[in-house]
Write the structure tokens for this entry.
Amino acid sequence: MKRAILVMVVGIMMLGMGATSAGAETRSKSDSSGDAVRQIDITRLTVTNGDHRVVMRIKVRDLRKRGVFNIHYWGGTTGTPPARSAIVSTRLVDGERTVEYLTCDREECEEVRCRGMRLDWRPGADVIVISTRQKCYPRPRRNPDAPAPGVGRFFASAEFSEDIDSTNGLLTVQRG
């Protein structure tokens, strides 16, 4: 009997933990296949904009072991570009993976340290997954403890040699 109650309690706790992560909004945006060289041809951008983390997934037509992929994160619904934004950039060159986090104003960007970033580059599945903490998103100078933006606008771009590709338009995702 005690074991059955313990199993029920653990099950309820797991359901509660799942509900927390399920509260984050996930949206996707498709992009035309065949509009760039295959190793950087972005076909889908999917973003889960959670309270604590942003998970960004780029689907590529034929992901290889080379190329540069950037995901732009614009906070709010106005400003093109907004006063504050971020770019997460990843590259894989000869098996060496890197990921950088840049914070930007309207004129320039600078690389900053963003602890807890995760990168999963899967050529076999033609997908790149990058996860960053919301705390890394730049805050107003007058209010450095402000929460992350309630709405994020995202788009992706890719480069390989002289070729480029990008998603067509912005993907708007509520945080939560």
In short: The chain has one helix and twelve strands. Confidence is low (pLDDT under 50) at residues 1-21. The domain at 26-174 is CATH 2.60.40 (Immunoglobulin-like).
